[in-house]
Design brief:
This protein has two domains: 174 residues, Alpha-Beta Complex (Aspartate Aminotransferase, domain 1), CATH 3.90.1150; 252 residues, Aspartate Aminotransferase, domain 2 (3-Layer(aba) Sandwich). With 460 residues, it is α/β, with parallel strands linked by helices. The strands form five sheets. It has a five-stranded mixed sheet with strand order 2-8-7-6-5, with helices on both faces. The protein has a three-stranded antiparallel sheet with strand order 9-12-11. Strands 1-10 form a two-stranded parallel sheet. The chain has 16 helices and 14 strands.
């Protein structure tokens, strides 16, 4: 047999397996109705291939599991904290570390520490929990991402970039003293896992610091972002991911982190800063909201696993396999004519529900319907990233109507094989062939906050 391309394999082997439950369509239809057509409300045991999220769904290595046995569960001064702090300083370069139970805790504390009521927080497209914490602190989020990010078909290599003109216009409009900080997410989840270039974050840093504004990095998937810089940006092809990540983080003043993504763990996060005064405030707050400043709501074993995951995830061969596995699924769907966000992002393939279900108006939640239909057809669980996730304007109560109406098929790290992705691709393509039979949804229950997690729907 002659290969038409160089064969590729993951840089690891499987040591432990977990059986999957195979169900029929009738059973899945019943499950979906009981879940109110919300994939978040399904029982995981009823899911065949779970692409809901890459958050905390990673498979840990033998090195990490061995580290779990070395957990120092002392209430104060755990040795695992100091190991984690040492690795954050080594790989990201920040001076001070405060651990949290996950990224949400880091977002909450940093928002409370830096935002005063009436301030504005620009960012390269909103993220759900980030924006909510900013709003609860009295801030107003302002999207300053480049326009290309809102176009699913545009092939810009760095669709996560900040539009410097939009950022500067906001500063001129409200005044620099009214800008709490700028958030730079890398990669940008809601845009389809799209990266930010090194040149862009450097320019953002220069503009922000010229006006006395801090730069906060959402570093949740910054290692994936470093890989895209290595592959796409001139001058970085011969640099390691470790070198790229350290330079990228150097253009920011602080970072929030959900270790449940890049760092290959099931729980954990942190906030890291360079400013001692901000650190002091955070160190005080963590005792109130999370736990003592040397454990922040985490067991010592979890901090050890996160520190070790940091070492593994920064390896170039691992990250190449991670990104290429996502690209594999995306390329199959794109070649079949299925509308997706292009280029394929770092952690997920995003189906463009507006083009997939072009007969369903946005008010009938086409992405929510598509996620439900995919589960019913195949047992594959994805999630909505569109009007439901966008929520409502806190002043008017009207629904935000984002230009992107997406279904995210998120690939957990080191969990599924190429065969699982082949099955996923086949079922998405079959659903696309019969797309005009689909119907929209109406919302019948809406929670107060982050409605996409718990909202319930019925068929139109």
């Amino acid at each position: 047999m002659e290969f038409t391309r160089k064969p590729w394999a993951e840089p690891y082997k499987i040591k432990v397996v977990e059986p999957l439950k195979v169900t029929d369509r009738e059973y899945r239809e019943k499950c979906m109705q009981e879940a109110g057509y919300n994939t978040f409300l399904l029982r995981s045991e009823d899911v065949y291939i779970d692409l809901l999220t890459d958050s905390g769904t990673n498979a840990m290595s033998d090195y990490q599991w061995a580290g779990m046995m070395l957990g120092d569960e002392a209430y104060a001064g755990s040795k695992n904290f100091y190991y984690l702090e040492e690795n954050v300083q080594k790989y990201y370069g920040y001076k001070y570390l405060v651990p949290t139970h996950q990224g949400r805790g880091a977002e909450h504390m940093l928002s409370q520490a830096l935002i005063k009521p009436g301030m504005y927080v620009p960012g390269n497209m909103y993220f759900t929990t980030t924006r909510l914490h900013q709003e609860l602190a009295g801030g107003t989020f302002v999207d300053v991402i480049i326009d290309e990010a809102h176009d699913s078909a545009c092939d810009h290599p760095f669709k996560g970039n900040v539009d410097l003109n939009k950022f500067e216009n906001l500063i001129n409009k409200v005044g620099a003293d009214k800008v709490a900080y700028i958030t730079v997410g890398a990669t940008v989840n809601m845009a389809g896992g799209q990266p930010v270039s090194m040149a862009n974050i450097k320019a953002v840093s220069e503009l922000a610091h010229k006006n006395g504004i801090k730069v906060v990095l959402d570093a949740t998937r910054a290692m994936e972002n470093a890989y895209f810089i290595q592959q796409r940006e001139e001058g970085y092809q011969n640099k390691t991911m470790q070198e790229i990540l350290r330079e990228f983080a150097s253009y920011s003043d602080a970072a929030t982190m959900s270790g449940k993504k890049d760092l290959l763990v099931n729980i954990g996060g942190f906030v890291a800063v360079n400013d001692w005064d901000v650190f002091e405030e955070l160190r005080n707050m963590v005792v109130v909201y999370e736990g003592l400043h040397t454990y922040g709501g985490l067991a010592g074993r979890d901090m050890e696993a996160m520190a070790r995951g940091m070492e593994e995830a920064i390896q170039d061969d691992y990250m190449a396999s991670r990104i290429n596995q996502v690209a594999y699924l995306g390329n199959i769907l794109n070649d079949a004519g299925v509308p997706i966000v292009w280029p394929v992002g770092g952690h997920a393939v995003f189906l463009d529900a507006k083009r997939f279900y072009d007969h369903i108006p946005q008010e009938q939640y086409p992405a929510q319907a598509l996620a439900a239909d995919l589960y019913i057809a195949s047992g594959v669980r994805g999630m909505e990233r569109g009007i439901v996730s966008a929520g409502r304007n806190k002043e008017t109560g009207e629904e935000y109507k984002p230009k992107l109406e997406l279904v995210r098929l998120t690939i957990p790290r080191r969990v599924y094989t190429q065969s699982h992705l082949d099955v996923t691709a086949y079922n998405v393509i079959e659903l696309f062939k019969n797309r005009h039979q689909a119907k929209g949804l109406k919302m019948v229950y809406e929670p107060k906050y982050l409605r996409f997690f718990q909202a319930r729907f019925e068929r139109m």
